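About this split. The held-out portion is used to measure sequence recovery: a designer receives only the structure tokens and must propose an amino acid at every position. Recovery is the fraction of positions where the proposal matches the reference. Here is one held-out target exactly as it appears in the evaluation file.
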């Protein structure tokens, strides 16, 4: 039974794909434009590709995707479980000898662990693509040289660290959604408060853990 309750969370993550994709591609575009403006002052325009790929894979891809998913999926989980709590459906599960943690919480944590890194892979690709589009169409870079610089400066460590962050963020998002929904009370007003609290808590934790994980991965 627990395995099948993972499906709604995976579907919610799938519905987050358009907003994550749009966020990533426009972020890559803006990053290329802004970095070119700044680097041109030091005659370092060739570093645009490396700055875009490093920023997207290490930081902006996982963090922005995590924040988007927190607003989309974290709120959905909190509302769903909160509604079950205030309508006594969770108590009914306990009465039927079904562990709510195993049936409701564990599958969603697993879904977050799997789905958010997959979304970040898409965000990384589209973020780099957005930078490539602006660099070649507006900034005058040659497509070949930009791609060569991107591949030269992109390292496996950068991508893996971003995906590791995404996995942690996925767990945090679903954990906050489940926790706030599970402990909601007071009818519809309580469900609304739980939904807001889940998004805020997940967003703050994403930013805090981003620093901790960056320190862990890249401090020398």
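Reference sequence for scoring:
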């Amino acid at each position: 039974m627990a395995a099948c309750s993972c499906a709604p969370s995976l579907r919610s993550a799938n519905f987050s794909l358009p907003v994550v994709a749009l966020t990533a591609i426009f972020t890559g575009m803006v990053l290329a434009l802004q970095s070119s403006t700044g680097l041109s002052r030091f005659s370092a325009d060739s570093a645009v590709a490396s700055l875009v790929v490093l920023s997207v894979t290490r930081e902006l891809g996982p963090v922005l995707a995590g924040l988007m998913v927190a607003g989309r999926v974290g709120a959905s989980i909190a509302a769903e479980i909160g509604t079950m709590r205030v309508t006594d459906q969770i108590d009914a599960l306990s009465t039927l000898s079904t562990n709510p943690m195993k049936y409701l919480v564990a599958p969603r944590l697993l879904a977050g662990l799997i789905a958010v890194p997959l979304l970040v892979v898409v965000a990384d690709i589209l973020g780099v693509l957005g930078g490539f589009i602006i660099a070649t169409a507006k900034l005058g870079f040659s497509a070949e040289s930009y791609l060569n610089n991107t591949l030269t400066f992109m390292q496996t460590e950068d991508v893996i660290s971003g995906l590791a962050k995404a996995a942690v963020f996925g767990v945090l998002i679903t954990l906050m959604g489940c926790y706030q929904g599970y402990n909601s009370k007071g009818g519809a007003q309580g469900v609304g408060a739980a939904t807001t609290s889940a998004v805020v808590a997940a967003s703050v934790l994403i930013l805090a853990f981003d620093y901790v994980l960056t320190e862990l991965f890249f401090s020398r």
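Annotator remark: The chain has one domain: 8-214.
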